[in-house]
Amino acid sequence: MTLDQWRGKIDAIDAELVRLLNERTRIALEIGKLKKEAGAEIYVPSRERAVLQRLEELNGGPLPAESLRAIYREIMSASLALERDLKIAYLGPRATFTHEAARSRFGGSVEYVSCSTIGDVFSDVENRNVDYGVVPIENSTEGAVTHTLDRFVDTTVRICAEIFLPISLNLLSRAGRESIARVYSKEEAFGQCRRWLNENLPGVEQIPVGSTASAAERAAREEDSAAIAGWLASDLYGISVLERNIQDVSGNVTRFLVLGRSFSAPTGKDKTSILFSVKHKAGALYDALSVFSGSGVNMTRIESRPNRTKAWEYNFFVDFEGHAEDEEAKRTLEKLSEHCLMLRVLGSYPNMGGTES
């Protein structure tokens, strides 16, 4: 076949794709009406997971699974935006990794609201100023985000999903590498790229700023400057990516939580997060945690934080495999409550298992 004939086939397929996408959207809008009449949540993580898993099973290639997920993320994002003016709060400013994580889950068609603090994200969700919020909870190299943990003590919001985002640091600039006179970024980002910078930009001035996003914004205004930031900063500030993944150590992943007002429905592969406190006496925590070892429920994470109202007493945050509505989990939580002064289920949601799917 000739080039024009192959292009004719592409054009015909595109026409059919557009027709089918609009038909899918019309059906999604009908589903949205039914959800609205029933007072149900617009965003349903359990259904999202099922759709993406089914698509991966149907995919015979050559389109990679990651690319297929990205395409359908935007298709679902457009449908959500048409069903309702969906607002997502995130820890800002624009183009931070939290913004990137939110975009990876909700796509580019919904409205995003930048918040200056983690507490503001919680408040916006709690006060119904937004539909959902996205906050960091832990990093694979730096550990827990304590501001997020502390905010769960006195809030009514619930965890309805989790996001795992590999942290990729990139060199962004309007200039070629040989013309760069200075580099902007956060102190932490400079530390994570120290070896690469020494080998590839020796002697270039390194200027710390408050965020990788503000670094990209400044570099976008200056012809001889560069920034170390995420890929989203390149897109939002119109600045080229000169080098990708310049961090010295790969495998750095941050886990984020999607905050809402209700739990996700069970999927068969779920995770539950709880908060509890125990009596201030010898063996109290051991007695509480022994409930898990005897139940068959797999505890995957535990963090402690000081109780802000009582000196030398602590709150404990635990993640375990399973949904709070599972019979085994119910029995475990009932037994655990016998050892606790306070016990709250913060959320049950699809278990992403350390990778985004």
Which labels suit this protein?
Alpha-Beta Plaits, 12 helices, 357 residues, D-Maltodextrin-Binding Protein, domain 2, 15 strands, single chain, alpha/beta, 5-stranded mixed β-sheet
The appropriate CATH architecture of the domain at 265-350 is 2-Layer Sandwich
Q: Looking at CATH, which topology of the domain at 265-350 would you report?
A: Alpha-Beta Plaits
Level of helix content? 40-55%
Number of strands: 15
Q: How much strand?
A: 25-35%
Distance between the termini: 38 Å
**How large, in whole angstroms, is the Cα Rg?**
23 Å
Q: What series of H and E elements makes up the topology?
A: HHHEHEHEEHEEEHHEHEHEEEHEEHE
What's the CATH superfamily of the domain at 265-350, by name? Answer: ACT domain
- Structural class designation: alpha/beta
Structure description:
It contains 12 helices and 15 strands. The protein is α/β, with parallel strands linked by helices and 357 residues long. Among the domains are: 171-243, 3-Layer(aba) Sandwich (D-Maltodextrin-Binding Protein, domain 2), CATH 3.40.190.10; 265-350, Alpha-Beta Plaits (2-Layer Sandwich), CATH 3.30.70. The strands form 3 sheets. Strands 1, 2, 3, 4, 5 and 11 form a 6-stranded mixed β-sheet that branches. A hairpin with a 7-residue loop joins β13 (299-306) and β14 (314-321). It is globular, with a radius of gyration of 23 Å. The two termini are 38 Å apart. It catalyses: prephenate + H(+) = 3-phenylpyruvate + CO2 + H2O; chorismate = prephenate. Residues 1-87 form the Chorismate mutase domain. This is Bifunctional chorismate mutase/prephenate dehydratase. InterPro entries: ACT-like_dom_sf, ACT_dom, Chor_mutase/pphenate_deHydtase, Chorismate_II_sf, CM_dom_sf, CM_II_prokaryot, G/b/e-P-prot_chorismate_mutase, Preph_deHydtase. Residues 87-261 form the Prephenate dehydratase domain.
